[in-house]
Here is the input.
Amino acid sequence: MILIAAGEAFKQIDRKTEGELLARYPEVEWSGVKGVRDVIAHGYFDIDAEEVFGICQTDIPVLTRWSCSASFSKRCDGRLRKSIFNG
Here is the structure.
């Protein structure tokens, strides 16, 4: 469920910033971050448990550190965070 929530949150950030914020960070594979959510949410029988485990082991820690970084936090101001997490 965390991967679904994270993917959806980044989709909303992208939508609400009209693609501008995430585009500033090309080092992150955003299509993969957002796409994992779709696969898990809609591809029940196509999910590869080892792939999900690998994502949790390697990609999530990197994404967590990145999204908590000062540079991202400065660009994702409080109003945007509030609008994303409160609907």
Notes: The CA atoms of residues 33 and 85 lie 18 Å apart. The chain has a mean pLDDT of 78. Residues 2-85 form one domain.
